[in-house]
Amino acid sequence: MISRGQAVVLVAGFLVLALVPAAAATLNEPFYLDLFRRIMIFAIAAVSLDLILGYGGMVSFGHAAYLGIGAYAVAVPAFYGIESGLVQWTLAVLASAAAALVIGAVSLRTSGMSFIMITLAFAQMFYYLGISINAWGGDDGMRLARRSRLPALDLADATVFYYVVLAILVGLLWLGHRLVHARFGIVIRATRSNEARMRAIGFSTFRYKLAAFVLAGAGCGLAGALLTNQTDYVTPSYMHWTRSGEIMVMVILGGMGTLVGPVLGAAAYLLLEDVLSAWTVHWQIVLGPLLVLVVLYARRGLYGLLPGSAPRDG
Amino acid sequence: MTALLVAEQCLNGLQLGVMLFLMAAGLTLVFGIMNLVNLAHGSLYMVGAYLATAVFNWSGSFLLGVLFALPATLAIGMLVEVIALRRLYERDHLDQVLATFGLILFFNEAVAIVWGRTALFTRVPRALAGHIMVLPGVRYPAYRAVIILVGLAVALVLYVLVNRTRLGMLIRAGASNRTMVAALGVNIRLLYTLVFGFGAALAALGGLMAGPIYNVQPGMGEEILIQVLVVIVIGGIGSIRGALVGAVVVGMVDTLGRAFLKPLLSTTLGPVAAQSAGPALASMLIYLLMAAVLFFRPRGLFPAVRS
Amino acid sequence: MRTPRSAAVLVLVAGLLASQARAAETLKIGFITTLSGPQGVIGKHMKDSVELALDHLGRKVGGLETEVTYGDDQAKPDVGKQVADEMLKKHRVNFVAGVIWSNVLLAVAPTVTGSGTFMIDTNAGAHEFAGKQCHELFFATSWQNDQTPEAMGKYMQDQGITDVYVLAPNYAAGKDMVTGFKRFFKNKIVDEVYTKFGQQDYQAEISQIRAANAKAVFVFYPGGMGIQFVKQYVQAGLREQYPLYSVYTVDEVTLPALGDAALGSWETRYWSPDLKNEANAKYVGDFRKKFGYTPSYYGAQSYDGILLIDSAVRAVKGDLSNKKGMIAAMSRADFRSTRGKFTYNTNHFPIQNFYLLKAVKGGGGEVEMQIQKTVFENHKDAYYQECPMK
Prior knowledge:
The complex is a heterotrimer. Chain A is an all-alpha fold. Chain A has a single domain (about 5-305), classed as Orthogonal Bundle (ABC transporter involved in vitamin B12 uptake, BtuC), CATH 1.10.3470. Chain A is built from 13 helices and 4 strands. In chain A, the strands form 2 sheets. A two-stranded antiparallel sheet of chain A has the order 1-4. Chain A is globular and about 55 Å long. The mean pLDDT of chain A is about 85. By secondary structure, chain B is mainly alpha-helical. Chain B has one domain: ABC transporter involved in vitamin B12 uptake, BtuC. Chain B is built from 11 helices and 2 strands. Chain B has a two-stranded antiparallel sheet with strand order 1-2. In chain B, strand 1 (about 130-135) and strand 2 form a beta hairpin. In chain B, helix 5 (about 140-165) packs across helix 6. The mean pLDDT of chain B is about 85. By secondary structure, chain C is α/β, with parallel strands linked by helices. Chain C is built from 14 helices and 14 strands. Chain C has helices spanning about 1-25, 40-55, 75-90, 100-115, 125-130, 145-160, 170-185, 205-210, 225-235, 240, 255-260, 280-290, 295-315, 325-330; strands at about 25-35, 60, 65-70, 95-100, 120, 140, 165-170, 190-195, 215-220, 245, 265-270, 345, 350-360, 365-380. In chain C, the strands form 2 sheets. In chain C, strands 7, 8, 9, 10, 11, 12, 13 and 14 form an 8-stranded mixed beta sheet that branches. Chain C has a 6-stranded mixed beta sheet with strand order 2-3-1-4-5-6, with helices on both faces. In chain C, strand 4 (about 95-100), helix 4 and strand 5 form a beta-alpha-beta unit. In chain C, helix 2 (about 40-55) packs parallel to helix 13 (about 295-315) and helix 13 (about 295-315) packs across helix 14. The longest helix of chain C is centred in the N-terminal third of the chain and has 22 residues, at about 1-25. Mean pLDDT of chain C is about 90; it is low at about 1-25. Chains in contact: A-B, A-C, B-C.
């Protein structure tokens, strides 16, 4: 159960996000609509990572691979003339899920540092693959001529696109919430706590972990599809391991295992980056120690700093 | 593709492996003994390279650069441990990843502020600028031969230190059961700080040796960090022997892959396909190797035994 | 509780309105480059040159008060696009200039030109913009990627050099460079090797070169990769046996790190600090005085970018809404460029000379690039016929 403090934050946060387009229009600052939309897209990626990282304890350093797969799932069909959003986005989700199935099947046999490294390795392999495929631009990437065509919704309209992304984010949060509190989620969390015990009880922990891994990958694939539409562009750098690192930072900064935390983390990270880089070229020297301080003193991330947060599962 | 060329490439692979070992040894020590994921290891490598290069350029003596950089980086390492990392030993690996990632950003920028973003001028010390005829008709840079010797010497020293001295015994005991060792009256905090400092010095040694042949600029640590992580995962975390074997294997596979993969593929796929498949596959090779090793040995080749 | 907050909002709104009012009189330029990270050194070269151009123009471009906003793309296309969006929508710039990397330009330029704003490309030579994606609002003050290696290919072909070993990093620009080289170099190429982007150790490739019995080596290794390759090439003793020809590898950005290791390297470029013309002498001289280091072509291009904007705004007498007038003025390339007189092709890429450069010991004991001869005069790029603009 969430506390009153957290409920207030959730409602307030949703209201802020819902009102950004109106505020941006009133202040005549359309840039902020784009900025917050980008924040929400990365929030979707971060929330999907939280499912396996925060709840499952699976430190996947290769999550950006699904961002890239989802992104190419939109750009490549568009390149060949298929502009239907329903087709592209379904492909993004399915392709990412398939990739996650393969990667997870191999990686989940290991644990700890080995798991981190092998997921990183897979992401790098996708990255190098993306660079070598000349037909799809190699590392120059590809432009998206037209945003995905959705029935009745015109994504070229910045505000319409904004609300589509917001709807997907809210939907994902709700879905995640249901999943985490259902039997599936409880098994995942318990497995994180003590896998041997869960296996002794009779659960096939590998299958549950793989299922979570696939769901997380699918979610991130959808984020990738949205990202291509946001930038009107796709490039293999979406799959680089440093991207995975950034998404991970957003999850941990915001608060792992909270679902809403990663949204806060994405907002904090991207806003800080925007504000700091306008202020000084050496913005990384501020961001660096800031991260260290958050880890040392804000153990449950930004979400944990809010009043009334429940203690994290042991 | 002559036998001589293959032999020369094997030597190159060995040397690359030894370079990686110098970095990997410090990282695996810290990880294995203190269970700390230290992404900032690459930053210490960079700091060592910068300090040694700066002193070398100012004084003209490579030796002076070495003598300054090693203790200085050791001190910086210990300082970082006391200020930032000490509290992280009991924490999640994730927290350690985030905190050390923050340190990477800090060090990269600090170095850019002090020395600017332009790469520093480095050169091989005159005494080592010559060539030796290690194989008939092959002029091998003397400096690279020295790297191999230094690396193997370090491996020997570490082996003796960890397995044959009292200090090494304390370190291994601390890795096995920290509380017990503390209960026996050993100042475990000091021990950990010293071990971390020592790991930093090893990273600095790698950095200052790499300086004359590689690029000394902000971010140089991250370029090599991934390869080093691959090495310690293949070799087995916490094991010096694993780090050496893993490093040499990675060095060999990477070098031989870059040299011979494309010609080999040409014979089967034809030159045009090999032109694009060769380089793509060569860059993925060490990751495929790691995946293969982990498939059969999920904990690496020589995992250190921990209770 | 309420009063300070609403007062703050009022001040904010007033400030925004005020800044809007000023916009009509101030010329705003958004300059996108890489300022952080290891490639930030190139961004510094560009930013310093922009600042010098502003100084030379009395901080007034085209006679108008000028405000330059610098954006850091972190060498990432999606960040570059966000920065461009911010410049267009928040700062309401009249011109967007800069961009080092082709993949960032591919993300940024369509956004800029699509919004009816001028895109002045001061580095990235992506062939898409010289060909199919050319745009009336897009002007390059640099070159098209292929042109520079074309010049080297022609020189080596004319010299009768054969049995060349070619190396480049395995990414789009690397492949473009080799394509450009082969467009004019028709003699025997012993092998064409693509190495991993960002690779540090080239000993394996060096051994291969030795075993391949080549007579010369041609490479494209920008930035840190170039420093590493050239250093290791020289340390292996290869320079005496195989002369090193390169593009974008040995330049004012990498020379400080290479030092004597660069001596004897051949390059081709459209510009060099020692190119003799009045504008360049002033640029290089004042740059060295103000910043204490030698400028590179990245800087010269950025400097020219500001001068190009200046010439256009002057031609329409400050009327920034007269886009057609500014396009016509820019197309005439009627400004004192650091490369001397040049003209624009129909695709808004320069038609310019290319020179052969060699790294030699300069008067002051430093290693510098010096022009040896002209390879191409008024050279056009290979893509202009694909451009719909005629």
